[in-house]
Specification:
Number of domains: 2
Bound molecules: cytidine-5'-monophosphate
Radius of gyration: 25 Å
Strand content: 15-25%
Helix content: 25-40%
Shape: elongated
CATH topology of the largest domain: Rossmann fold
Number of helices: 13
Largest sheet: 8 strands, mixed
Length: about 400
């Protein structure tokens, strides 16, 4: 992939640009920074030059060797991201003013442009700024909405630069989006469920939700509309994803069935608890009132239900096993009407539940299989989504 041009303007949130650069670099992307003159009052260009390994551009005319750099750089980049973007750069872009490198460069680029505004809430909500944003959106410029909250000027409201992770996720969607996923609805479940005995005691499992969250992030980056139905986890939801939080298997089933008719792909990565207590007490039970043997009943099998109701949906199931991986996963695949099964062995300590890495076996109903060796869950999610892209493309050809 080509590199990212990062336009940096004069905002107190300028320090977040360093984190944005780091996140791009961790995705294997190079960054070339362009600063406005006023931004150099906050941070010396040298900081960005050191971080990126490439000379930071400020002036239109400051490099005798490459006098028309704003034109030659155009062919080297896949995205122009402006973060933080001030009211001033947004106004200049909206009216076509080209009086410094960044504003001139904006007029020259042919790649997607993404703007992450950061300013005082009154400036952001000012009808003039809103008008400028509307105009740019109509011209095809993309925006990452600022967050609401405490601002450096002491005010509360919208205007705080979105988080670096959110900005980078939106950037990656613009450059990684794939035809197969555009306009598609991907429904992902993640995390464990909790089945309560009383308000303080529950049955659950050690799932952290990481695999499902990485799948949701990847589906968003590939261009899909993503709905994430999540049991209790400690992760921030990925950018751009519609999150529905649930606690029990029954709640997860209701949420999934509600969205199922619209879904094109369903990834059941949640570790749904298989049993719940017969009876759920509203008041905390006294220790001496709990019998040594508690009765349980099976929770609804959501995936099996989805398999029964399947129309055009592509169903992906997950199987966590401790031994006889292939046989057990294949049996579940057939019983639950799944189109692709992701099986993993959870007997090891370093992969599977609540760890950063995983090692999985993919199984298809036609008998094919593929082993994905140990790698990060982020990478595993990319491999799984590549296989889903193949299946989506195969279906499109059949229609
Ligand atoms: O039967 P088992 O729990 O091993 O099946 C795993 C797959 O079935 C996962 O995709 C999981 O999300 C799904 N499942 C479900 N409802 C349950 C139990 C599991 O949808 N009650």
């Amino acid at each position: 992939m080509k590199k990212i041009a990062l336009g940096v303007c004069s905002s107190i949130s300028i320090y977040k640009a360093c984190e944005i650069i780091r996140l791009f670099q961790s995705e294997g992307l190079g960054v070339r920074v362009i600063m406005t003159e006023k931004a150099t009052r906050f941070i010396q260009p040298y900081l960005f030059t050191s971080l990126t390994g490439e000379r930071t551009i400020v002036e239109l005319f400051d490099d005798g060797q490459r006098p028309i750099e704003h034109i030659s750089l155009v062919d080297e980049i896949s995205l122009l991201l402006i973060a933080p973007a001030t009211a001033n750069i947004i106004a200049k872009m909206a009216s076509g003013v080209a009086d410094d490198f960044l504003s001139t460069f904006y007029l020259a680029v042919k790649c997607p442009v993404l703007v992450a505004p950061a300013m005082n809430e009154a400036m952001y909500l000012h009808p003039q700024t809103q008008e400028n944003i509307k105009k740019l959106k109509a011209l095809g410029v993309n925006f990452v909405e600022p967050e609401s909250g405490y601002l450096a000027c002491g005010k509360q409201g919208p205007g705080r630069l979105a988080s670096p992770r959110t900005i980078v996720d939106h950037s990656l969607r613009l450059i990684r989006s794939r035809e197969a996923f555009r306009g598609k609805v991907v429904l992902v479940t993640a995390g464990p469920t909790r089945e309560f005995l009383d308000p303080v005691r529950f049955l659950s499992n050690p799932s952290s939700g990481k695999m499902g969250y990485e799948l949701a992030r990847e589906a968003f980056q590939l261009g899909a509309e993503v709905i994430l139905v999540s049991g209790p986890t400690y992760f921030e939801p990925p950018a751009g994803v519609h999150l529905e939080k649930v606690t029990t298997a029954e709640e997860m089933k209701q949420a999934v069935l509600k969205h199922y008719p619209r879904a094109d792909v369903v990834l059941m990565a949640a570790a749904v608890a298989d049993f719940r207590f017969c009876g759920n007490f509203r008041e905390k039970l006294r220790k001496q009132d709990i019998r040594p043997v508690l009765e349980v009943e099976p929770t609804p099998d959501i995936l099996e239900e989805l398999g029964r109701r399947k129309e055009r949906q592509l169903l992906v199931g997950f199987a966590a096993e401790t031994g006889e991986l292939r046989e057990k996963a294949a049996e579940k695949m057939t019983r639950k009407g799944v189109d692709l099964m992701v099986a993993n062995d959870v007997s090891g300590q370093e992969t599977g539940f609540a760890s950063d890495d995983n090692e999985v076996l993919l199984i298809w109903p036609d008998g094919r299989s593929r082993k994905i060796p140990r790698m990060s869950k982020r990478k595993i999610s990319q491999e799984i989504m590549k296989e889903i892209e193949v299946l989506l493309n195969e279906r499109r050809r059949q229609i």
